[in-house]
Every structure is written in structure tokens, then in C-alpha cells.
Q: What sequence folds into this?
């Protein structure tokens, strides 16, 4: 009888101990926003989608904003700005190519990002990408 009682007690204690809540679980909150604008410009219908997201994991906030850009030749690019509170980057995607640039400094009109020999300067409505003597002007699609 005592053996049965001892086995039952041990199994109950083990069951309760295994059901203990993990204290290291993370609380996460995500917010997403998308805005699509359709423009009829001289009979040409075009759309521009701007997205943003914000993640909060145990008080550490990561912000992410994406904007569409258009070059003078009509080609398109997407720039995604990431800010995790410790570092800021911009990811430029165009023609199946992706460039990730690191934040260097704030300028009078925007921000300067740079990695290796490529740099990008932002203004409220433009993005200037430079590599060597080549400068590409991209206008924000409105």
C-alpha cells in the first residue's frame, strides 16, 4: 500500500512540475499598415504601395517602413528602412538585386546610408544612390 501511495505521490509531483509555466516566454506585439494609391497619369494607371510594421518584443521595438521609388527612365525600386533602436539600415531592391546599406549620419534634409562603395542619401521625396561617379536619382512614387 505504501509503495502505491509513494508511486502516486511521485507521479503527481512530476506532473505538476512538468506543467510549470516557462518564465522566459516572450511577449510580442506587431502592428502592420499598408496604403495603396492608384494614380491615373495621362491615361497610364499606376499604383504605389507603402507598408510599415512595428514589432515590440519585451519592450524592444523594431520599426520597418517600405516606400516605392521610380527612376526617370520608368524603372522602379523599393526602399525598406529598418530601425531596431541599435542600428538603422536601408534595403534597396531593384531589378532582382538587393543592396543593404548602414546608417552613417543625419543630413540637413534626410539621412545618409553607406556600405562598401555604395551610398544612398534620402530626402523627404527622393533617394539618391551613388557608386563611384554614377548617381541615380529616384523619386518617391506619390
A:
Amino acid at each position: 500500500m505504501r509503495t502505491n501511495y509513494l508511486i502516486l505521490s511521485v507521479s503527481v509531483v512530476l506532473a505538476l512540475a512538468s506543467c510549470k509555466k516557462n518564465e522566459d516566454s516572450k511577449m510580442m506585439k506587431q502592428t502592420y499598415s499598408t496604403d495603396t494609391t492608384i494614380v491615373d497619369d495621362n491615361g497610364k494607371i499606376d499604383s504605389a504601395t507603402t507598408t510599415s510594421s512595428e514589432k515590440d518584443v519585451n519592450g524592444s521595438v523594431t520599426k520597418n517602413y517600405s516606400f516605392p521609388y521610380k527612376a526617370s527612365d520608368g524603372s522602379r525600386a523599393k526602399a525598406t528602412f529598418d530601425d531596431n533602436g541599435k542600428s538603422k539600415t536601408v534595403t534597396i531592391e531593384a531589378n532582382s538585386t538587393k543592396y543593404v546599406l548602414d546608417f552613417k549620419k543625419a543630413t540637413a534634409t534626410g539621412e545618409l546610408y553607406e556600405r562598401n562603395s555604395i551610398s544612398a542619401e534620402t530626402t523627404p521625396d527622393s533617394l539618391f544612390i551613388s557608386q563611384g561617379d554614377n548617381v541615380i536619382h529616384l523619386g518617391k512614387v506619390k
Remarks:
- The mean pLDDT is 82.
- The first strand starts at residue 28 and ends at 41.
